[in-house]
């Protein structure tokens, strides 16, 4: 079966695909990874990954500009229950609203909004870039085998203020920041698993094994 990485003009596609391909090979699965902007390929995929780098509004426009892609994601992920992983802005797009350079409607799959980072400690810089510890707040399949306090790699200036019951892990940046959200067949990471070395590879392997 295929794992589809949705190409809608946002960066880091190849690094995500490379990490997925490595995890597939190391786990001994027969799956293959396809980077695609073709809704039909996404429709045929067993699992769907939505990466994202850039501004919220630009990323939503990129999705909307792919004929049929928005509809296929709704059909396969929300109606069909296919396992879905959003990464960085790909996670943020699941929100109802993004407040970056104006107000932009998101996919609306999870209650909450994406707002600017505003750390209480003025010595902390925005964007938040670097390794931060993960604080597990709720069990989730994608976090199995990852130790509390394990470090993951973040690069972002905005964060997802999600409904508390959706937050499975946080990190501290002079205040709690959502690191991983999960609901039903939906999961998303603010950090970049493809840049998070052993922690990221374990999370990706968990995603491949996940049967929500």
Strand order of the largest sheet: 2-1-3-4-14-13-12-9
Tell me about the biggest sheet? 8 strands, mixed
Counting H and I runs of at least 4 residues, what is the number of helices? 6
Low-confidence segments, ≥5 residues, pLDDT <50? none
Quickly give the structural class. Answer: alpha/beta
**In CATH's first tier, which class applies?**
Alpha Beta
Termini separation comes to 17 Å
By CATH, the topology is: Rossmann fold
The domain tally reads 1
> Architecture, according to CATH?
3-Layer(aba) Sandwich
- Which range best describes the helical content: under 10%, 10-25%, 25-40%, 40-55%, 55-70% or over 70%? 25-40%
β-strand percent reads 25-35%
Mean pLDDT: 95
Kindly state the number of beta strands. 14
The ordered H/E elements are EHEHEHHEHEEEEEEEEEEH
Written account of the structure:
With 212 residues, this protein is α/β, with parallel strands linked by helices. It has one domain (2-209): Class I glutamine amidotransferase (GATase) domain (Rossmann fold). Helices cover 27% and strands 30% of the residues. The chain contains six helices and 14 strands. It has helices at 13-27, 39-44, 56-64, 69-79, 89-92, 197-209; strands spanning 2-6, 32-36, 47-50, 84-87, 97-98, 104-105, 112-116, 128-133, 135-136, 151-156, 158-162, 167-172, 176-183, 186-189. The strands form three sheets. Strands 2-1-3-4-14-13-12-9 form an eight-stranded mixed beta sheet. A four-stranded mixed beta sheet has the order 6-5-7-11, covered by helices on one side. A two-stranded antiparallel ribbon has the order 8-10. Helix 1 (13-27) packs across helix 6. The longest helix has 15 residues, at 13-27. The protein is globular, with a radius of gyration of 16 Å. The two termini are 17 Å apart. The model has no long low-confidence stretch (mean pLDDT 95).
């Amino acid at each position: 079966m295929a794992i589809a990485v949705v190409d809608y003009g946002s960066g880091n596609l190849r690094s995500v695909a490379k990490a997925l391909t490595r995890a597939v090979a190391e786990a001994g699965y027969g799956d293959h990874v396809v980077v695609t902007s073709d809704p039909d390929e996404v429709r045929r995929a067993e699992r769907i990954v939505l990466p994202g780098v850039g501004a919220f509004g630009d990323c939503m426009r990129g999705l909307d500009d792919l004929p049929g892609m928005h509809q296929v994601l709704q059909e396969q992920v929300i109606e069909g229950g296919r396992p879905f992983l959003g990464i960085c802005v790909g996670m943020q797009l699941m929100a109802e609203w993004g407040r970056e350079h104006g107000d932009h409607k998101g996919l609306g799959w999870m209650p909450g909004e994406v707002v600017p980072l505003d750390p209480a400690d003025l010595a902390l810089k925005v964007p938040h870039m670097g390794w931060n510890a993960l604080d597990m707040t709720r069990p989730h399949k994608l976090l199995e085998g990852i130790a509390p306090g394990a470090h993951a790699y973040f690069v972002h200036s905005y964060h997802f203020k999600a409904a508390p019951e959706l937050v499975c892990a946080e990190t501290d940046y002079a205040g709690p920041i959502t690191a991983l959200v999960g609901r039903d067949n939906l999961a998303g990471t603010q950090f970049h698993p493809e840049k998070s070395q052993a922690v990221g590879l374990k999370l990706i392997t968990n995603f491949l094994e996940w049967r929500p």
